[in-house]
Request: fold
Amino acid sequence: AQAAGDEVDEVEQTEEQKPLEKTHANMASSNLAKVNEFVEEKEMNQARIAAAMQRVEDAQKKKQLEDEERARKLAAVVIDKADVALIASEFELTTEAAELALRANNGDAAATLLALLR
Reply:
């Protein structure tokens, strides 16, 4: 009779353990899903950061090329040294700043003077 009672207790314990096992399995599944979501979100964020950094790098390269092109165009402008001296003295500029102002105004001293007055 004792063995039959043990089997009943064993069956009851098994029946009681099943909801706990399901609860643990559900919790484990839920936790795994959360970890997967976190990893996926992290990977997406890394991809967004990489794309943003690429856009910044592309913009910097474009700006550098534009600056180099502008410098080449300005260097090609012929300027008169007397105009450089006049503008540098009148506006208390360095020679380099006066040359740049003249080149930006295509070597035209009058246009440069007006531009510097504005």
Summary: The radius of gyration is 39 Å. The mean pLDDT is 85.
